[in-house]
Amino acid sequence: MSRTVFCAFLNQEAEGLDFQLYPGELGKRIFDSISKPAWAEWIKKQTMLVNEKKLNMMNPEHRQLLETEMVNFLFEGKDVVIEGYVPIVAE
């Protein structure tokens, strides 16, 4: 049985995550109010960020940058800006 959450990112009911994927209070907030589709979108952005900026997850500053971007993306409606990346727009 999948759980449903009101997704803060999609602004609608959607399938919730199966378990908490991020530690601490922020992880609980994500679990409670971010859907699987929204999390999948974030993972794509996160991968692009890590690759583009050559982030090292052992570096606390890099982890903090990613966390800030994640909160902005999932909860603040701010897209991730990656220098030199131009999204393909369907005509």
From TrEMBL:
UniProt keyword Zinc present: no
Keyword Iron tagged: yes
Domain of life: Bacteria
Pfam families membership: Iron_traffic
Coiled coil: none
Signal peptide: none
Molecular-function GO term, any one: iron ion binding
Any one GO biological process: cellular response to oxidative stress
Gene Ontology, cellular component aspect: cytosol
Classification via SUPFAM superfamilies: YggX-like
Keyword vocabulary terms for this entry: Iron
InterPro entries: Fe_traffick_prot_YggX, Fe_traffick_prot_YggX_sf
Known role: Could be a mediator in iron transactions between iron acquisition and iron-requiring processes, such as synthesis and/or repair of Fe-S clusters in biosynthetic enzymes. Necessary to maintain high levels of aconitase under oxidative stress.
Similarity comment: family membership: Belongs to the Fe(2+)-trafficking protein family.
Name listed for the protein in its UniProt record: Probable Fe(2+)-trafficking protein
Organism: Nicoletella semolina
Lineage of producing organism: Bacteria, Pseudomonadati, Pseudomonadota, Gammaproteobacteria, Pasteurellales
